[in-house]
Amino acid sequence: MVQQDLDPRGDSVLEVSGVHKSFAGVHALRDVDFALRPAEVHALIGENGAGKSTLIKVITGVYRPDSGTVRLDGRERDFRNPLEAQAAGISTIYQEVNLVPLMSVARNLFLGREPRRFGLVDVGRMNREAAEVLGRYGVDVDVTRPLRTLGLGAQQMVALARAVQIDARVVIMDEPTSSLEPREVETLFSVIRRLKEQGIAVVYVSHRLDELYAICDRVTVMRDGEVVHTGEIAQLERLRLISLMLGREMATVRDKGTTAFDTDRHERQTGRPVLSAEGLTVRHRLHDVSLDIHPGEVVGLGGLLGAGRSETAKAIVGALGTDAGSVEIEGKPLHRRSPAAAIRAGVVMLAEDRKAEGIIPNLSVRENISLAALPRLSRAGVVSQAKQDEVVRLFMERLRIKASGPDQKVSDLSGGNQQKVLLARWLCLNPKVLLLDEPTRGIDVGAKAEVQSIIDELAADGLGVLLISSDLEELIEGSDRVVILKDGHVVGNLDGEDVSEDGLLDALATAPPLSPDDPDLPEQPGPATGPENPGGTPRAGSDPAAAPVKEKQR
Amino acid sequence: MTSLTWTGPALDRARVRRLLQDYGVYAALAVLFVVAVGLDTSFVQMSNIRVQLFQVAPTLLVALGMALVIGTEGIDLSVGAVIALAASVVPLYVGYGMLPALAVSLLLGAVSGAVGGAMVALARIQPIVATLSLMIGVRGLAEIVNGNSAKPVTQSGLLDLGSQSVAGIPEMAWIAGICALLTGLLVRRTTFGRQLVAIGDNRQASRLSGLPVRRVLITVYVISGVLSALAGVLIVGHGAEADPANQGLNMELNAITAVVVGGTPLSGGRVRVLGTVAGALFMQLITAVLTQHNVHTSYTQIVEAAIICFAVYASQERGTR
Amino acid sequence: MTSAVLPPPATAKARAPRATLGERIASQVQRRGALAVLVLVVAIASATSSTFPTWSNISSILGNNAFVWLLALGMTFVIMTGGIDLSVGSMYALGGVLGAYGSTHGTWLAVLLPLAVGAAWGTVQGLLVAKAGMAPFIVTLVGLLGLRGLLQAVTDEGATTYLVPQHSAFRHLGSGVWTPVLITAAFFVLGIVLLTRTRFGHTLTAMGGNENAAVLLGLPVARTKVTVYLLSGTLAAAAGALGGARLGSGVTTIGIGYELTAIASVVIGGTLLTGGSGSVGGTAAGVLLLAVIHNLIDHYFSQYGSAFTDTVNGGFLAAVVLLQTLLSRKQQLE
To answer: Do you know which SUPFAM superfamilies this protein is assigned to (chain A) (predicted)?
Structure first.
């Protein structure tokens, strides 16, 4: 490993200067300078479309710049593909674990550069070395098992170990923590610190500001294809960072908060809940989860990744089979459990994964909006064009969907507008309850604010809303009440004044350990407490680390 | 991360490709027709056209069902075998008249389709394997039902169906044409048709949107089975014999070819009915032209293979996957 | 947002969960099911039938089928990458005709001509799949049609039949029981080594498991794909040539539907049709199982003719795929 220069103020290991890149006449990068020093962790931040990913792709050889240079160790380089960049010492770790789930851990680690003897792969040596390498990253697993049996965090570590193994000088991490649990994040951080000690420079892309301040030395902020700020992160106030990213005045950010939710709570209607879920249980994932939603209130569902938030929503609408539990809509039990039945009863769910579970990419905006409502827009199985047009026009206006027209292909729209199309798909069914799973993930600031105010309006109109969000501020500012999940159990309920960041974190932090997930616990379930106890029990016979993997694999 | 795509005037090649995808088959059909007439003016004689229509009708019927199946991102390899099965039962029931024989054939087609559809929709087996097992099994069944030799069929109603013309056009062609029209309406105008396309494009999203995914899938395979069985009955009527060992052989290939040449992508989410009609006509005419000019069947086959290859290549959407 | 606030133990270890019993059983059934059923069927047949365990019967099962099994070997590689090769049946026939034609000019040509044509055609198919990004299913379907056309062209529309000269050394390659069996077994052993002990094998497994990842990991995906189809085409042509050597002539009508049997054997042998998981050993068990079952059907149900074999074939394939789907779903849900 390179040890020559541990001074963070030394010469740049990677230097991008004056890079322009445009696509079909539109500038994606304009005169971008970016310098990476050895042994530093450099945050790269900006809204979607700011040019971060284009810059990374220029560095890693996916794109070639129109003008400008990329220098590695002072030498000008012109990578024609990611392989060349990798060979030169630039490794990239992607948001999703990009390995082969069915192959063994060791094979994944050594794919393409297996140790060989007499031309054949030396499996024994490969497995030994793999165990050794992973041990150094705190991953202690049987390396002959298929990768998919590992927890997502461990998989990410394997990817990291693999990336660093290739004598990397520069490691680029693109949202590496988006699927990690907190303790896995901490492991990742300790690995990053070790990389620093070895003189390796890290480019760290993340939307989570806390992480940036925790691990990064310097920061580069991008907006509209230009670099708007580079400097020490410690000297950049958080609000200032946000205002730089958004291009908005600091004062506005401070006054209005970062979300567009109205600061007032909704007027809650008391009396019968519009949706009442009792004792939802899905083996290994949900344990006796109950919650009520009243008309006109936004109920937040809090918890960390793998806590069972998406599963709760999916179990309610019947997209996930339940082993026990019931759902009542306005007092009437939902008998057949399927998305279709839930929709008929007035319960709809905006799924988390917009691409895989939301849009029908090749169909038009019109068809995407009217998809679920088709039976209502038809007579004798024939779709009424007039009714369809009317509904589509109404919702395109109401939700301010920006498209060239109702016939534009939905996959050509921006993420925010796609999300609004999906909202329209549900709203035109006139639902009673709306389950929103990460409604603002991956959409730009403007659309985010719009979606947030739409949620507000809907609740004000008397809809019951369940809001799942990893964005803590969104959850706190948007919800009237928060139900907190941990490892598939309800561990807390926040109401009124308690709905705050501190309240949520307190509830999460004080909830007793629930599973053998915790490294300090023995693998056997603890004694005395029964599985029904919502206060917290190790789940009998569960396999906790696999849970997040499944959540991703769905 | 957003993908950086901008469409601008610079993308002429993409426009050409899209035009080729959308209208290529019609242009090719027109050019082929002009060339055929130019080579031999007798090509436009009614007798020749009628012969072509007789031959294209069964392929078109099967291709219509295939187009629907392909629209759901599936494939139905069992169509040829279903033709054989339909053919095998015709001699058994034709004694009761044409309609009972037709009804039993169509019913068996529906049952076979339902089995394939159930394997795909309920057991979630890959369509290619599910229908492959049907393809092998059902043809074996047809041969068991029929015995070893071809059986003559003399029922007049059935023979008329296969040989008579109405207004100068063969009845078979009328039937195929009407079915094409109905299929077109089904895809464009009905709830079922729109649901079918949505399911082919993104099945998980369709399920979460409350669409009856299983029902639609099973129905699609049933429709394909029924249309194949209808084609089988027409083939028996036209040939005046039931020969399950040979009838419908390679029909799955011809049908897939017609659909693909017609511009329906194999990746699902789109059904082009008119394109399928044009695709079936195109493949029929090119074979006819080559045969009429004494090109060996070997070369005809190679040309066909090349056309499929080109059609698939042209229908691919670049850069989206 | 929450991550940095909760103080987690810094030395956290990621630990893999244990596989549940159900998962392990499912995975074992999937991997060794064909072998278990094979042993069971052979045991029952041997116990209940006096003709089954005879040497003449066994040698006819092995000797007559061995070369065709090579198609399944090539198919295993293709299916492992998530592809499929429907052209092998046609290639088998073409290989036989080319082998017979070549043998009239010498043994070397009889061996090399089919191999060269098979490799060339396989390469073209591989390039269309890997470089032009076309669906393997359709490319090889075109191969199925085109090769039959080529076959007709080579044999003057089936009018010419090439015979292997009586005293050609080429005939020895296909004669008897042991020569075909040993040749085929040697290929299968090479196949096992290739799949499990070479970078090529690892790469093709990785591609089948997650092609995107394989590309990003810098594996030679396109090259491996081309090689896989090349291998399948070459093996099919070689199998055809050897089959031709056994029959003593190039038969144009042979090989129809062989691709289906090959696919069925591979699937029955536990290789996932979606790619990424499977084994050559499983395929060997799969081909043997199908051969034994066909032998039994021929013996007990010969009055129904080959139609019955087809029906059982289809039903068997459906049952195995059904089982496999259920098992792999169990593994995912556990």
So the answer is: P-loop containing nucleoside triphosphate hydrolases
Collapse the DSSP code of C7 into the 3-class scheme (helix H, G, I; strand E, B; otherwise coil) and give the result: coil
Q: How many CB atoms lie within 10 A of CB B154?
A: 10
What pLDDT does C21 receive?
63
Q: How confident is the model at residue A258 (pLDDT cuts 50, 70, 90)?
A: low
Is residue A29 within 8 Å of A21, Cβ to Cβ?
yes
Contact A545 C15 (CB under 8 A): yes
* Residue C220: HSE in the Cβ half-sphere, 13 Å Cα cutoff: 10
Q: How far is CA B62 from the centre of its chain?
A: 3
pTM, whole model, 2 decimals?
Answer: 0.77
Q: Does C304 touch chain B (CB under 8 A)?
A: yes
The amino acid at A185: V
Nearest Cα to Cα of residue B76 among B307, B269, B280, B259: B259
Please state, in angstroms and rounded to a whole number, the distance separating the CA atoms of residues C331 and C334: 5
- In chain A, CATH 3.40.50.300 sits at 14-100+169-256, 275-346+431-553
CB atoms near residue C115 (< 10 Å): 19
pLDDT tens string, chain C, 334 residues long: the values are 333 333 333 333 334 444 556 666 666 666 677 788 888 888 888 888 777 778 888 888 888 788 889 999 999 999 999 899 989 999 999 999 999 998 888 888 888 999 999 999 999 999 999 988 888 888 888 888 889 888 888 888 777 888 888 777 778 777 777 888 888 999 999 999 999 888 899 899 998 888 878 877 778 888 999 999 999 999 999 999 989 888 888 888 888 778 888 988 898 888 887 788 888 999 999 899 888 888 888 777 766 666 777 777 778 777 877 777 777 665 544 3
Q: How far apart are the first and last CA of chain B?
A: 16
Whether A371 and chain B come into contact, CB under 8 Å, resolves to: yes
Domain A275-346+431-553, CATH:
3.40.50.300
Token match 């799955």: residue? Answer: B252
Any C CB within 8 A of B308 CB? yes
Q: Which amino acid is at B77?
A: L
Chain A hits for B1, CB-CB cut-off 8 Å, are 48, 52-53, 95, 174
Q: Which of B126, B128, B137 sits opposite C314 (nearest CB)?
A: B137
A28 close contact with B: CB closer than 8 A: yes
Do residues A188 and A176 lie in contact, with contact meaning Cβ atoms separated by under 8 Å? yes
Is residue A250 within a helix (H) or strand (E), and if so which, with residue range? Answer: helix A250-256
Considering the four listed CATH numbers 1.10.150, 1.20.120, 1.10.3470, 3.30.160, the one that applies to the domain covering B55-315 is 1.10.3470
In the numeric block, the tokens 């945050």 are attached to A43
Tokens of A417: 């507008």
Stretch A437-458: mean pLDDT, rounded? 82
Contacts of A141 in chain C (CB under 8 A): 14-16
CB C138 within 8 A of CB B294: no
The verdict on B7 touching A (C-beta cutoff 8 Å) is yes
- Calculate ∠ Cα C188-C194-C199, nearest 5°: 170
Q: Which of A177, A138, A181 has the alpha carbon at shortest distance from A158?
A: A138
Residue to substitute from A186, A504, A551, interface C, most C β-carbons within 10 A: A186
Give the residue from B140, B61, B167 showing the smallest Cα distance to B106. Answer: B61
Does B197 contact chain A (CB < 8 Å)?
yes
CATH of the domain spanning A14-100+169-256, picked from 1.10.150.120, 3.40.50.300, 3.30.470.10, 3.40.50.2000: 3.40.50.300
Is the Cβ pair A415, B2 closer than 8 Å? yes
Nearest beta carbon to residue A472 from set C2, C8, C11? C2
A96–chain C Cβ distance below 8 A for any pair = no
Q: Does domain C58-333 have CATH number 2.60.40?
A: no
Asked if B141 and C157 come within 8 Å (Cβ–Cβ), the reply is: no
